[in-house]
Design brief:
Ornithine decarboxylase, 11 helices, alpha/beta, disordered N terminus, Ala_racemase/Decarboxylase_C, eight-stranded parallel sheet, lyase, ornithine decarboxylase activity, 29% helix, pyridoxal phosphate, TIM Barrel
């Protein structure tokens, strides 16, 4: 088996096969000895690489990392050092970035439905840009009209996305005009429009359509003599490769770049990528707790499962490449199950696996987005700990300079 985007298979000195390179095998084994399975390896070099790749694919677009898929301090500080901005949705996320020293003017708050307390918590931090998609929500900002500025979120349905984020949130174009009109009456500033085409959107035309419609609304608002809109937020949804269908982000974004070029020159564009930045950055490592033969298949029970790091199988329709760390010889039809006593706790059925021993390590790839973030401790199985790799810049010139007193 080969996993796209990773080091090609190598055979180690004993002729074993693996999807890892020998350095990675040594690293995983030493971490397993030191910390014990299960764990997740978070590689900040990959976070950095993903951010730079999307930045290059969307020149001039300000990227706000959406914390939701992996709200981890190391991700925030890595991205902050890269110059990223942040997309927050809850007070917990506000506190996380605030405690890491993220300047508030690098953040926006994009939950379309908020309590008064949520608005005040964000404003106290200094985050001033919020999202609304209806008049009821707009009116919550009457007391804050001197400080807060709003984006109006539009809905563009996308039933093919992994998660169609325009079903639960977003208004129609007519709804957007109504909100902009009412905001002008109330003296509330509308800075622009936003949308989210749906997570893991593999069809760039969804963005193109949404950008074109927003372009029409931005022009329509100006034609109606309403206050001019200055921002378009094209949301998240940018896809990653979970299988051999490799996504090339630069060519994926080409039609998006063309659509953005049609916007009035004064419109600033921002995006809220989540999954794209973190999905490839985490690798899960679990170990075999026990095994049984059932109906001609071997069931391997791991110390991580559906209620833990693999929760995205349920919540995010996830299909993560999983395999033994290394193996020799034949493969057999097998089942990979999680540790809890619940029958739903199965990671993969009809998977071809080598003969495994208790204690052998199983590696899951592309496990950074919507995995540990939605994990539980059901049945008292503790969540896999996250082990951070490459958190600091390799470039020595950027390392803090220590001056010794003579
Ligand atoms: C979840 C979410 C994101 C991130 O979406 P991805 O598909 O992970 O890129 C961005 N913006 C908002 C408002 C979200 O709810």
């Amino acid at each position: 088996m080969s996993v796209s985007g990773f080091a090609p298979s190598v055979a180690d000195a004993f002729g074993a096969q693996t999807t890892s390179n020998t350095t990675e095998i040594e690293l995983i084994e030493s971490l397993a000895r030191r910390y014990g399975a299960p764990f997740l390896m978070l590689d900040c070099d990959i976070v950095r690489h993903q951010y730079q790749a999307l930045k290059a694919a969307l020149p001039g677009v300000e990227l706000h990392f959406a914390l939701k898929p992996l709200p981890h301090p190391a991700v925030v500080s890595t991205l902050l050092a890269e110059g990223a901005c942040f997309d927050l949705a809850t007070t917990g996320e506000v506190e996380l970035v605030r405690d890491l020293g993220v300047p508030a003017d690098k953040t926006i708050h994009t939950h379309p439905i908020k309590r008064d307390r949520d608005i005040r918590d964000a404003l106290e931090y200094g985050c001033k840009v919020f999202v609304v998609d209806n008049i009821n929500e707009l009116e919550k900002f009457i007391p804050y009209r001197d400080e807060a500025e709003l984006l109006v979120r539009l809905s563009f349905r996308n039933p093919n996305a992994v998660s169609d984020l325009s079903k639960k949130f977003g208004c129609s174009e007519e709804g957007a005009y109504a909100i902009v009109t009412r905001a002008a009456e109330l003296g509330i500033t509308i800075r622009g429009l936003s949308f989210h085409v749906g997570s893991q959107t593999l069809d760039a035309d969804k963005y193109v359509h949404a950008i074109n419609r927003c372009n029409a609304v931005i022009r329509g608002v100006a034609e109606r003599g309403l206050p001019v809109l200055k921002v378009l937020d094209i949301g998240g949804g940018f896809p990653v490769s979970y299988d051999d269908n490799t996504v090339d982000i630069d060519s994926f974004c080409a039609p998006i770049r063309s659509a953005l070029a049609e916007l009035p020159a004064a419109v600033a564009v921002i995006a809220e990528p989540g999954r794209f930045i973190v999905a490839p950055a985490m690798t899960s490592v679990a170990s075999v707790m026990g095994q049984a033969e059932r109906d001609g298949e071997t069931w391997y029970y791991l110390d991580d499962g559906i209620y833990g790091s693999f929760s995205g199988i349920l919540f995010d329709h996830g299909h993560y490449p999983v395999d033994a760390l290394y193996w020799q010889g034949e493969r057999f039809p097998s089942v990979l199950a999680g540790p809890t006593c619940d029958s739903i706790d199965v990671i993969a059925e009809k998977i071809m696996l080598p003969k495994l021993n208790n204690g052998d390590l199983i590696v899951g790839r592309m496990m950074g987005a919507y995995t540990s973030a939605t994990a539980t401790e059901f049945n008292f199985f503790r969540k896999a700990q996250i082990i951070v790799l490459n958190e600091f810049m390799h470039d020595a010139s950027l390392a803090p300079v220590v001056t010794l007193e003579v």
